[in-house]
């Protein structure tokens, strides 16, 4: 019997524990099934009553040109909510690695013959250099990509359009941006539900990069605890906790209720002014903005150099699911409030839970016309303006 290797979570492991598997024709009874091997045309409706007792499913890929296993994985995750380990089993190629993860696979199992054609390093770098898992919107100009190969073509076309980071994975974008703006680039973080992703990447590239958090004095306790946990866990050595000017707070919001009477003034006092003094000194700023979030961001480039301060948006093409996939892949802790329905988290008095199906930002300034914190860059300075298109990181 040929030996196999499992490529999972950026590591190559011995796959011998999956050597013995049950065939799909033999799943009667009520006992747990450790490993089930299914063909790529398996009848999932027939399998559905059994899924809850299957720990691992290997989906057979007879050839890398046969993509039916990808569809099967998607259906298992999305339609049947299968939560066990899902492994693509067969002679795939590294270009399909990211796509496999995107479809819901946790790992790829390769036999020795397949590994002779591509090294383990090829498999790892396929994720690093061309990260379709987290950049699925690459194909936006040509319509949704149906495969990584379509997306690569679109990438090549779009490079001509002038975004120098187009087609790079988020991590590669960060590496190049940190080199390009060496010593003159900053990451502003909200310590929200997506923040761990960029902080984790930064920690792997340059943990001494300046990272700024705006501590308004109105955050949830959980956000501050999450901040402390992430900074410590990632070893960020240049983390800066920016607070509002206390004399201004005493003068303008002595009883701490300005957010109720004049939320725009409160944001100006607690966010705009403290940030203005710190962040404008940098030539470039890394943001966590994503194209899917608002219509105004739909055409956003990864690198924006249209104002005095360049913006680097490594996650421009990510979706919420890509964030989840990355957090899962790297075992990053979620924001503690996410589990109880907070999908977009700002200051405590101005944030509520959202219901299923609501826009994630519906919980911010609920029952108010205000939709953004008002932090916006105009003529190279951070200012407070009233527009729905101003949300940055906070
Ligand atoms: S989000 Fe609310 S509490 Fe926070 S600064 Fe703005 S108005 Fe004040």
Q: Strands, helices and their partners?
A:
Elements (H helix, E strand, L loop, with lengths): L3 E5 L2 E4 L7 E2 L9 E6 L5 H4 L6 E7 L7 H11 L6 E5 L7 H6 L4 E5 H6 L2 H10 L18 H12 L10 H11 L4 E5 L5 H11 L5 E4 L6 H14 L4 E4 L3 H7 L5 H4 L1 H17 L4 E3 L16 E2 L5 E3 L7 H10 L45 E4 L2 E4 L10
Parallel strand pairs: 3-4, 4-5, 5-6, 6-7, 8-9, 8-11, 9-10, 11-13
Antiparallel strand pairs: 1-2, 1-7, 12-13, 14-15
The protein binds iron/sulfur cluster.
Iron/sulfur cluster binds next to helix 12.
Offer a concise description of the structure.
This protein has 394 residues and is α/β, with parallel strands linked by helices.
Protein model, in words:
The protein is α/β, with parallel strands linked by helices and 394 residues long. The chain is built from 13 helices and 15 strands. It has a 7-stranded mixed sheet. Strands 10-9-8-11-13-12 form a 6-stranded mixed sheet, sandwiched between helices. The relative contact order is 0.10. It folds into 2 domains: 4-129, Rossmann fold (3-Layer(aba) Sandwich); 170-384, Rossmann fold (3-Layer(aba) Sandwich), CATH 3.40.50.620. Mean pLDDT is 80; it is low at 129-160 and 376-394. Iron/sulfur cluster is lined by residues 216, 218, 259, 263, 266-267, 270-271, 346-347, 349-350, 373.
Structural class: alpha/beta
**Parts with pLDDT < 50 across at least 5 consecutive residues:** 129-160, 376-394
Q: How much of the residues is beta strand, in percent?
A: 15-25%
How do the strands line up in the largest sheet? 2-1-7-6-5-4-3
Would you give the CATH topology of the largest domain?
A: Rossmann fold
Fraction of helical residues = 25-40%
What is the element string, with H for helices and E for strands? Answer: EEEEHEHEHEHHHHEHEHEHHHEEEHEE
Query: Which overall shape is indicated by the principal axes computed on the Cα atoms?
Result: elongated
Bound molecules: iron/sulfur cluster
Estimate nothing, just give the exact number of structural domains.
Answer: 2
Biggest sheet character:
7 strands, mixed
Q: What is the first-to-last residue Cα distance?
A: 56 Å
Just give the CATH class of the largest domain: Alpha Beta
CATH architectural name of the largest domain: 3-Layer(aba) Sandwich
Q: Which whole number gives the mean pLDDT?
A: 80
Radius of gyration based on Cα positions: 23 Å
- Give me the CATH superfamily of the largest domain: HUPs
- Helical run tally: 13
Total strands? 15
């Amino acid at each position: 019997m040929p030996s196999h290797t499992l490529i999972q979570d950026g590591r190559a492991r011995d796959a011998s524990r999956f050597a013995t598997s049950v065939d799909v024709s033999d799943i009667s009874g009520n006992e747990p099934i450790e490993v089930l091997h299914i063909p790529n045309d398996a009848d999932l409706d027939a399998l559905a009553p059994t899924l809850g007792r299957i720990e691992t499913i290997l989906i057979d890929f007879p050839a890398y040109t046969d993509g039916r296993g990808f569809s099967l994985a998607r259906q298992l995750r999305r339609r049947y909510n299968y939560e066990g380990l899902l492994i693509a089993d067969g002679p795939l190629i590294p270009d399909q690695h990211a796509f496999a993860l995107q479809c819901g696979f946790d790992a790829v199992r390769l036999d020795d013959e397949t590994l002779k054609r591509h090294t383990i390093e090829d498999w790892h770098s396929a994720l690093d250099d061309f990260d379709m898992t987290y950049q699925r919107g690459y194909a936006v100009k040509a319509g949704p990509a149906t495969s990584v190969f379509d997306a690569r073509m679109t990438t090549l076309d779009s490079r001509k359009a002038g975004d120098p980071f187009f087609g790079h994975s988020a991590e590669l974008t960060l590496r190049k941006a940190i080199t390009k703006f060496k010593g003159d680039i900053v990451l502003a973080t909200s310590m929200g539900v997506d923040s761990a992703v960029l902080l984790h990447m930064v920690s792997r590239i340059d943990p001494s990069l300046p990272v700024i958090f705006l501590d308004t004095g109105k955050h949830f306790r959980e956000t501050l605890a999450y901040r402390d946990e992430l900074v410590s866990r990632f070893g960020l050595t240049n983390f800066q906790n920016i607070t509002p000017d206390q004399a201004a707070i005493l003068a303008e919001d002595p009883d701490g209720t300005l957010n109720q009477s004049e939320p725009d003034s409160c944001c100006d006092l607690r966010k705009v002014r403290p940030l203005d003094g710190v962040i404008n000194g940098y030539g470039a700023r890394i943001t966590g903005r994503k194209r899917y979030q608002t219509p105004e961001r739909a055409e956003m480039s990864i690198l924006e150099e249209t104002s005095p301060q360049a913006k680097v948006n490594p996650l421009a093409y990510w979706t919420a699911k890509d964030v989840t996939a990355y957090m899962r892949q790297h075992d990053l802790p979620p924001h503690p409030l996410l589990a109880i329905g907070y999908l977009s988290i700002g200051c405590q008095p101005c944030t509520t839970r959202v219901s299923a199906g609501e826009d994630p930002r519906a919980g911010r300034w609920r029952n108010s016309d205000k939709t953004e914190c008002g932090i916006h860059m105009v003529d190279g300075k951070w200012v407070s303006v009233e527009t729905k298109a101003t949300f940055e990181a906070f």
